[in-house]
Amino acid sequence: MTKVIISGGGTGGHIYPAIAIANALKEINPDIEVLFVGAEGKMEMEKVPKAGYPIIGLPIAGINRSNVLANLSFPRKLIASLSEARAIIKDFKPDVAVGVGGYASGPLLLAASMMGIPYLIQEQNSYAGVTNKFLAKKARKICVAYPKMDAFFAAEKIKMTGNPVRKDILEVKSKRDEALKHFGLDADKKTVLVIGGSQGARTINEAIDAGLTNLVGAGYQVVWQTGKLYIERAKTTASVFKGQVYVSDFIYEMDLAYAVADVVVSRAGALSVSELCLAAKPAILVPLPTAAEDHQTMNAMSLVNNDAAILVKDITARETLVKATIDLLQDVEKQAILSKNIHQLAKPEAAKEIAGEVLKLIKQ
Ligand SMILES: CC(=O)N[C@H]1[C@@H](OP(=O)(O)OP(=O)(O)OC[C@H]2O[C@@H](n3ccc(=O)[nH]c3=O)[C@H](O)[C@@H]2O)O[C@H](CO)[C@@H](O)[C@@H]1O
């Protein structure tokens, strides 16, 4: 029986591509056994079991760049994680491993390499972080979603697949009625979906909070995902708009959220961008300015340069975001252009292609 370990996580942008790869593997062969390895206390420990897969957590943490003292325990955690990763591999006996980025992929893939297990890396962004650059040296294959990744990785290992996206997001057109019912919304009104990435986005939350009366007053309804930190405030603001604003810290049914949306306001995390392409949604992107090497702006610009999305900078979002949203909601022609152009950038076969590459490594 074929056995695959998938490692990594930290945020939704790493976890959901990992789940999409696992699902694609299972679709090729339901007998393939998949084990996830994540980091203790991180988001994957909750989200992966919800998607139906077993996960083991390593005691690993990241390097804290703002507080040097917080890193004193890092070497101990790394050594403990490495030894645990070796034990997991010895016990599970995978034929191949996959790394999707995030803390756990470091020790797991390092152990895999020491134990002669071939591995593949999936890089979601247009910029490669330190860990993936290091792990790339021993990787057999690196699946990417952006051009010019040979700036970080050996060209002969790179395969351009796009980011793997959960299958239920591939088919959102037919789900509008189900989605309206799910979110308790009105079929006769246009809807804006506000998503701040897997953790929520402070600037977007503050802009929506201040402009909610204008949005609802203009006749629109809102699905607003806030992240954990803003949920209580958002609930208070939304409480006067019963039946017109749906608020949640995290949305599990993202397919329904995209299905109900006429316009989307979002951060520009790599997976959000890939999903918007597949769902063909007119979008206003507000890149997180502190993302490494400003990669969310690069992600967003890859769409904006193709007239496939609108960019609102984080620094001006509090003043301009709600107005830009209402303008787009009113401009049906612009919505159609954005929707057509963003859909052309979609890569619906990514998960399947990556799963194929994973299985090829076993045969080699
Ligand atoms: C702060 C941070 O580190 N951000 C990074 C993180 O973003 P982040 O984790 O926010 O990732 P993305 O925008 O790439 O993806 C978010 C994922 O979570 C899902 N989702 C989100 C909200 C929700 O309520 N429900 C839900 O299921 C989305 O559908 C998507 O699959 O990983 C991305 C991919 O490596 C990077 O580009 C981002 O810069």
From TrEMBL:
It catalyses: di-trans,octa-cis-undecaprenyl diphospho-N-acetyl-alpha-D-muramoyl-L-alanyl-D-glutamyl-meso-2,6-diaminopimeloyl-D-alanyl-D-alanine + UDP-N-acetyl-alpha-D-glucosamine = di-trans,octa-cis-undecaprenyl diphospho-[N-acetyl-alpha-D-glucosaminyl-(1->4)]-N-acetyl-alpha-D-muramoyl-L-alanyl-D-glutamyl-meso-2,6-diaminopimeloyl-D-alanyl-D-alanine + UDP + H(+). Its EC number is 2.4.1.227. Residues 4-143 form the Glycosyltransferase family 28 N-terminal domain. It is an enzyme of class 2 (transferase). It is a peripheral membrane protein. Residues 191-353 form the Glycosyl transferase family 28 C-terminal domain. GO terms for molecular function: glycosyltransferase activity. Its main location: membrane. UDP-N-acetyl-alpha-D-glucosamine binds at T11, G12, G13, N125, R166, S198, I251, A270, L271, S272, V273, S274, E275, Q296. Pathway: Cell wall biogenesis; peptidoglycan biosynthesis. It comes from the Bacteria. Keywords: Cell cycle, Cell division, Cell membrane, Cell shape, Cell wall biogenesis/degradation, Glycosyltransferase, Membrane, Peptidoglycan synthesis, Transferase. It is found in: Cell membrane. InterPro entries: GlcNAc_MurG, Glyco_trans_28_C, GlycoTrans_28_N. Transmembrane segments: none annotated. PANTHER family: GLYCOSYLTRANSFERASE (PTHR21015:SF22), UDP-N-ACETYLGLUCOSAMINE--N-ACETYLMURAMYL-(PENTAPEPTIDE) PYROPHOSPHORYL-UNDECAPRENOL N-ACETYLGLUCOSAMINE TRANSFERASE 1 (PTHR21015). Cell wall formation. Catalyzes the transfer of a GlcNAc subunit on undecaprenyl-pyrophosphoryl-MurNAc-pentapeptide (lipid intermediate I) to form undecaprenyl-pyrophosphoryl-MurNAc-(pentapeptide)GlcNAc (lipid intermediate II). Belongs to the glycosyltransferase 28 family. MurG subfamily. This is UDP-N-acetylglucosamine--N-acetylmuramyl-(pentapeptide) pyrophosphoryl-undecaprenol N-acetylglucosamine transferase. The lineage of its organism: Bacteria, Pseudomonadati, Bacteroidota, Cytophagia, Cytophagales.
